[in-house]
């Protein structure tokens, strides 16, 4: 016997362990030989991460698809794993060392530090995957991967070397987002531009040999020390005569040119802009166009370096700003200052450290070349975005793609497989001042040494552990050649040596050092769909499950991850990594605001699971996952779907108590009772609707179709209509109804399983204790196939009955008829079919609509409420049941009240100032309130008209 109440906490862990122990999560579980495959790779969460509501939505959607396709008999793989999260992980371990007052990473050295990180990963990493288990995620945990496990590391090295050999990876000095706290380049995704109260300083630069000046404006006065030009628009009549002349840079005294470039907007400010290529992305492009040499004024910690006047060296950038402003003001260079709202780039995680555009040597990928086939794939329909509108975002990124900076100045990550040594004088690039040291790119150190031996004439190679600028390696190089030392340290290229630097030391060791930088984490995750399946080896999994079917992800990483997976997949496998990209929406709070810790409106999905159960949490997320529309998550919705779980449990328990058990070889086509033929047909229709919605990634429509059928049709109507049969004396009708109810419940458990796996699996086991033995767990049972079971005649009759009872109930409620009062029903103008239906369902009609009697008449009495269904009018005489005059007055009063509310909202929505200033969620709330008030008024007007 089922327990009186369903307790998720007592069931979920037990059920999950049962699935896991039975191997139901493993690739191919439950599939027949030769079955069609279906595969998804999980967007690898950071190894440092914990489950937030976005993860919960993302993985619920994936699990719904996986469970759905598994039940449809496909050979399914859901590939799980985690990302090593270079910056976040290194920060956590370094912070932990500091808190424990232990030596920092530089004191420990790279090898010891990385040992400590691996220890942390073993102890604390991957928490989020255990949290996903609590949500019910049915991934193949036996195949769990990590972006730095040996197999994926091999794939990363192979890709890097291959792209380098093709000329698609190169090292160059370019501008990057620089984190002064971590002393590393970071990606755009790790930068958050925050609107800040700032200032705009207007500076007057003197023109060389003239009394004229030209005014420029800047929000970062300290960067003027790195100015190399002033740009004006070539067609700006005010400045055309100045192009080609020079200004003298204040404070520094450097002579810099005035150039003509369309980047300068004549309509913006003075129309003249200072050009600082080393510290502004737009200025860098201008500098490239005009051959301007950038001047980097910062150290890696954002202090001023030795390129600036002596009195500013070593100052923090913001301390230097204050000192520079004071000097500019004292010298009359500062003309005026405006208060201005400016967007300042901050470290996305801390929101405290300002990110600097910084000129540095980094490794880059020629993304524009890799982007071409990835663009064609979407344009030609081989990969599609759902919703389709996101294709435009994809095109916008890919058509304007820039070189991808893939190096990071960290220790935790995939170390770049490049080794450096002195450049021979016989090398074609020996006299190229930008060539730097000789670089050997290889998948292993042994291969790099072999390349070096071939280059250096088989001299013995000594690999140094220190950095390129580390003392030991510098000393090793300097022992061979002064020029090499200069190249290495000061990068002065004045000296040239025209003989073999090893001629005098033919038996000396040649120093070789590995690049200390690591790869951007997005580089390894770009390989995720095929590297997790064993590439570069031709594994059975790769051949079977790649390309994958669907990628489920958020819109914010279309470029950072989706596009890069497309590029790498096509480059290294020749095939798109997936045919569909489903972009899920953002989960906001119930007021439409973005969740944040500072606002205090963050909803923890694990708290929802603890309080309401995983099934209610999952169903809420699915039911609200409308394509292309952010969801507003309210706790009341989760409570509502917990009630749905309870409703299902209670319905199953009621059927159990009424002897509803599955029957061997039950054939629904042999049913004779209309209610049974109707519920079977309705179940078939519900299965078709849910199936079609899931196939089209309309998760909210699938969930709501299932909900409406189970709660509304099955629980509220079928069970109520079946109650008299269960308690009646017609044994044949009772047996048919018991078997049909059990059959329908089985289909419902299958239908709901992808959304609510725990309660459905528990009920599957419990209801399997009677009737034929269950052959398998629900998770690997077959999806319902009910085509051909629709019964139009029964459907029409029961739909009519439900509509009539619902209509009568609605009239009673609108008219404030006491719940316990029984009223008469008069039928006017009924045809033969309606009359037959009334008589056939008289018992159910009088019981469920609380009727005293049902009679036929040709006239409608005064003071009656009416409703029309088909050709007939159904009349409820209410004189003597309610005070009709009082009821008319109440309805008129309520109509007036709703009209006032609507007018009030209309005034707000018609106010241009309100629309301009109010947040979008506030405006949307007003529109929603108006729609609700309009609906209430319409129902009140209809009720009043029934009494007229």
Features:
single chain; 948 residues; 30 strands; 4-stranded mixed beta sheet; globular; alpha/beta; 31 helices; 4-stranded antiparallel beta sheet
Strand content: 15-25%
Radius of gyration from CA coordinates: 37 Å
- Physical arrangement of strands within the biggest beta sheet: 6-5-14-16
Structural class: alpha/beta
How is the biggest beta sheet arranged? 4 strands, antiparallel
User: How confident is the prediction overall: mean pLDDT?
Assistant: 91
What's the total helix number?
31
Helix content: 40-55%
Model regions low in confidence, pLDDT < 50 over at least 5 residues: 482-507
Number of strands: 30
**Shape summary:** globular
What kind of assembly state do the chains in view correspond to? Answer: single chain
Can you offer a commentary on this structure?
The chain is of the alpha/beta class. 44% of the residues lie in helices and 17% in strands. The chain is built from 31 helices and 30 strands. It has a four-stranded antiparallel β-sheet. The chain has a four-stranded mixed β-sheet with strand order 10-11-9-12, covered by helices on one side. The two termini are 54 Å apart.
Secondary structure blueprint with pairings:
Blueprint: H1 8-21, E1 37-41, H2 53-71, E2 75-79, E3 81-82, H3 86-99, H4 105-108, H5 110-124, H6 127-135, E4 145-146, H7 150-165, E5 169-179, E6 184-186, E7 191-206, E8 213-218, E9 229-232, E10 246-248, E11 255-260, E12 272-275, H8 281-290, H9 317-331, E13 334-347, E14 356-365, H10 367-379, E15 384-386, H11 390-399, E16 404-405, E17 407-408, E18 418-421, E19 438-441, H12 445-455, E20 461-464, H13 471-478, H14 482-488, E21 510-514, E22 518-519, H15 521-525, H16 528-531, H17 540-545, E23 550-554, H18 558-573, E24 580-584, E25 587-589, H19 605-612, H20 614-623, E26 631-633, H21 635-657, H22 674-695, H23 699-727, H24 731-752, H25 757-767, H26 792-814, E27 823-828, H27 832-840, H28 842-848, E28 851-857, E29 864-869, E30 872-877, H29 884-909, H30 912-917, H31 920-946
Parallel strand pairs: 1-2, 3-4, 9-11, 15-24, 20-21, 23-24, 25-26, 27-28
Antiparallel strand pairs: 5-6, 5-14, 7-8, 7-13, 9-12, 10-11, 14-16, 17-22, 18-19, 18-21, 27-30, 29-30
Helix pairs in contact: 1-25, 10-11, 10-18, 13-14, 19-20, 20-21, 20-23, 21-23, 22-23, 22-24, 22-26, 23-24, 24-25, 29-31
């Amino acid at each position: 016997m089922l327990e009186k109440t369903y307790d998720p906490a007592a069931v979920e862990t037990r059920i999950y362990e049962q699935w896991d122990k039975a191997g139901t999560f493993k690739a191919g579980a439950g599939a027949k030989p030769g079955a069609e495959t279906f595969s998804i790779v999980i967007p690898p969460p950071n190894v440092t991460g914990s489950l937030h509501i976005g993860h919960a939505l993302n993985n619920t959607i994936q699990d719904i698809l996986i469970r759905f396709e598994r039940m449809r008999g496909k050979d399914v793989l859901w590939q799980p794993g985690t990302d090593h999260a270079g910056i976040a992980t290194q920060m956590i371990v370094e912070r932990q060392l500091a808190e424990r007052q232990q030596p920092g990473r530089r004191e420990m050295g790279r090898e010891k530090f990385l040992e400590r990180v691996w220890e942390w990963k073993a102890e604390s990493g991957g928490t989020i995957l255990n949290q996903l288990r609590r949500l019910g995620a049915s991934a193949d945990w036996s195949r769990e991967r990590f972006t730095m496990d040996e197999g994926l590391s091999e794939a990363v090295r192979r890709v890097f070397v291959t792209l380098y050999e093709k000329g698609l990876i190169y090292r160059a000095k370019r501008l990057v987002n620089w984190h002064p706290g971590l002393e590393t380049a970071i990606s755009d995704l790790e930068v958050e531009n925050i609107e800040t109260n700032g200032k705009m300083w207007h500076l007057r630069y003197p023109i060389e040999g003239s009394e004229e000046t030209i005014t420029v404006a800047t929000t970062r006065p300290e960067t003027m020390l790195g100015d190399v030009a002033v740009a004006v628009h070539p067609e700006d009549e005010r400045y055309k005569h100045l192009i080609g002349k020079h200004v003298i840079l204040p404070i520094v005294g450097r002579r810099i040119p005035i150039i003509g470039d369309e980047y300068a907007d004549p309509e913006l400010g003075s129309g003249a802009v200072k050009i600082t290529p080393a510290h502004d992305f737009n200025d860098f492009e201008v500098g490239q166009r005009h051959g301007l040499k950038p001047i980097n004024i910062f150290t890696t910690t954002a202090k001023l370096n030795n390129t600036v006047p002596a009195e500013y060296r070593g100052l923090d950038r913001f301390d230097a700003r204050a000192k520079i402003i004071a000097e500019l003001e004292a010298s009359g260079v500062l003309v005026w200052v405006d208060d201005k709202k400016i967007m300042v780039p901050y470290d996305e995680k801390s929101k405290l450290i300002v990110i600097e555009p910084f000129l540095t040597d980094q490794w880059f990928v020629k993304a524009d070349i890799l982007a071409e086939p990835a663009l064609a794939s979407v344009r030609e329909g081989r990969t599609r975005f759902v919703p389709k509108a996101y294709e435009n975002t994809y095109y916008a990124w890919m058509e304007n793609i820039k070189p991808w900076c893939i190096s990071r100045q960290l220790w935790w990550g995939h170390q770049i497989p490049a080794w450096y040594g002195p450049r021979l004088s016989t090398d074609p690039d020996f006299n190229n001042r930008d060539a730097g040291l000789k670089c050997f790119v290889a998948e292993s150190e042994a291969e790099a040494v072999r390349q070096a031996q071939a280059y250096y004439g088989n001299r013995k190679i000594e690999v140094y552990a220190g950095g390129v600028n580390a003392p030991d390696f510098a000393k090793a190089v300097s022992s061979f050649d002064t020029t090499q030392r200069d190249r290495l340290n000061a990068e002065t290229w004045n000296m040239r040596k025209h003989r073999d630097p090893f001629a005098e030391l033919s038996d000396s060791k040649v120093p070789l050092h590995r690049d200390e930088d690591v790869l951007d984490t997005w580089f390894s995750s770009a390989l995720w769909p095929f590297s997790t399946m064993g590439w570069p080896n031709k594994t059975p999994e790769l051949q079977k499950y790649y390309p994958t079917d669907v990628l489920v992800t958020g819109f914010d990483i279309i470029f950072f991850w989706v596009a890069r997976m497309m590029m790498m997949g096509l480059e290294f496998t020749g095939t798109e990594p997936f045919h569909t990209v489903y972009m899920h929406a953002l989960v906001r709070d119930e007021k439409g605001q973005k969740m944040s810790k500072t606002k205090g409106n963050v909803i923890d999905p694990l708290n929802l699971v603890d309080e309401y159960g995983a099934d209610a949490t999952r169903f809420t997320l699915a039911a609200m996952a409308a394509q292309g529309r952010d969801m507003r998550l309210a706790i009341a919705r989760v409570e509502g779907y917990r009630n749905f779980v309870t409703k299902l449990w209670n319905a199953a328990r009621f059927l159990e108590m009424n002897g509803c058990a599955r029957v061997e070889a039950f054939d629904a086509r042999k049913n004779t009772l209309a209610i049974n033929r109707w519920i079977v047909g309705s179940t078939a229709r519900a299965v078709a609707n849910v199936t079609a919605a899931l196939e089209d990634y309309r998760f909210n429509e699938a969930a709501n179709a299932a909900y409406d059928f189970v709660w509304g049709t099955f629980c509220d109507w079928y069970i109520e209509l079946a109650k008299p049969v269960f308690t009646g004396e017609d044994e044949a009708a009772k047996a048919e109804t018991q078997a049909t109810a059990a059959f329908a419940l089985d289909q419902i458990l299958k239908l709901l399983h992808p959304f609510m796996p725990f309660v459905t699996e528990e009920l599957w086991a419990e209801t399997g204790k009677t009737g034929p033995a269950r052959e398998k767990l629900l998770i690997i049972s077959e999806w319902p196939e009910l085509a051909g079971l629709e019964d139009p005649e029964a459907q029409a009759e029961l739909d009519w009955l439900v509509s009539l009872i619902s209509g009568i109930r609605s009239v009673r409620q609108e008219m404030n008829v006491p719940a316990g009062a029984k009223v008469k029903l008069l039928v006017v103008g009924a045809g033969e079919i309606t009359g037959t239906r009334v008589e056939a369902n008289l018992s159910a009609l009088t019981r469920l609509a609380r009727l005293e009697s049902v009679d036929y008449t040709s006239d409608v009495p005064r003071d009656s409420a009416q409703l029309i269904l088909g050709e007939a009018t159904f009349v409820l005489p209410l004189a003597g049941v309610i005070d009709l005059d009082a009821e008319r007055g109440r309805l008129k009063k309520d109509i007036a009240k709703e009209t006032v509310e609507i007018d009030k909202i209309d005034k707000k929505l018609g106010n241009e100032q309100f629309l301009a200033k109010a947040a979008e969620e506030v405006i949307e709330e007003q529109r929603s309130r108006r729609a609700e008030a309009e609906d209430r008024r319409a129902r009140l007007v209809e009720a009043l008209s029934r009494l007229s």
